[in-house]
Amino acid sequence: MRRIGLTHACVAALLMIGSWTAAGTPPAAASDTQGSGSPAASARSAPASAALLQAMQRDFGLSPAEAEDRLAAEQRATALEPEARKAAGPAYGGAWFDAESEKLTVAVTPDADAATVRGLRSSGAAVRTVEHSARRLDATVARLDRLDAPSGVSSWSVDPVANTVAVNVVEGERSDNDVRRFLSEAREAGPVTVRTVRAAAETFAAGTVGGDPYYTGNVRCSIGFSVHGGFVTAGHCGGVGGQVRGWDGSYIGNFQGSSFPGNDYAWVNVGSGWWTVPVVLGWGTVSDQLVRGSNEAPVGASICRSGSTTRWHCGRLLAKNETVNYSQGAVHQMTKTSVCAEGGDSGGSFISGDQAQGVTSGGWGNCSSGGETWFQPINEILGRYGLTLHTA
């Protein structure tokens, strides 16, 4: 089993707990997978480990106090977002975290009544009036999902700040006939804005490299999050039944479920001397991060990723429910971030504070020149397979 350099006695105790809870606790129903505890309870917990705060300081240029304040504000916004969506009702136009004001901004259409707007503001949110409802924008994305996208179209998703559906086209491909035809059909589907990206999205699996967390065949990927009975990761890393070996070459388990393309998620059962632990690994360079739940962070929030190749990197959450057009096929309902990643990081953990967010799927760029990376949201994976996140 993997040797983990944990720095706190409480985490060492959790390791021992994990060794028997994994074996004795059956998977829960899908209804039990939407986070652990209430958002308010999570907001009252410690904001993050020293490792995550250090990574945020490095990647955002923040002081220690600024990093703590930022995470606390994001936790408040995370707790507020589902309530704001419910309060706005059909007038809801989306929401995002604004780093400058450290508030959640909630968009509403002009038909929102005055009482609703007053209620949102009294809750601590900023309010902006927009033309299109979130329902209309989501319907536009759904129409685009039914189109046959050429390789020159990288992805598409709702941009709540711009109140539009952003379609990302690879640089130099806009004049391609298939791309032009797709864009014409996209504009007929609803409010669309076309943007340019430097490169097409690719998955982050890699050929076998020694000393990394797990292998299947000749592919190296990264563990995402522990669940009772195993761990979740990216679907493109292996198919159902595929054998998984650990960093030391020993047998861990097999892929019990896997989906790619369409989705990009999978889960692996754990046995043969391995156990599950409710932490995100620092790979020996930073301390490990305890996982306490899976409350979904809003657009604009800071987010960090841990992977077996590039370790810790942080950035911002850019978009949700984005369709990514890989060469193997489109993957739906992904979340886009400004965090970099490289080959071998696939399947690795995305975390905001102490809340699990998702598993690394793919992106473009690297951690030298920068780029963007997508992840498959964790709660969707838990719900799909009836798994329970292993939390501290």
TrEMBL record:
InterPro entries for this protein: Pept_S1_alpha_lytic (IPR004236), Pept_S1A_streptogrisin (IPR001316), Peptidase_S1_PA (IPR009003), Peptidase_S1_PA_chymotrypsin (IPR043504), Streptogrisin_prodomain (IPR035070)
Compositionally biased residues, Low complexity: 34-45
Protein's UniProt keywords contain Hydrolase: yes
Pfam families, sorted: Pro_Al_protease
CDD domains recorded: alphaLP-like (cd21112)
Keyword tags: Disulfide bond, Hydrolase, Protease, Serine protease, Signal, Zymogen
Peptidase S1A alpha-lytic prodomain domain residues: 132-176
Keyword presence, Disulfide bond: yes
Signal sequence coordinates: 1-22
Alphabetical list of Gene3D superfamilies matching this protein: 3.30.300.50, Trypsin-like serine proteases (2.40.10.10)
Region (Disordered) location: 25-45
Family under the similarity heading: Belongs to the peptidase S1 family.
Protein's name according to its UniProt entry: S1 family peptidase
Source organism per UniProt: Streptomyces prasinus
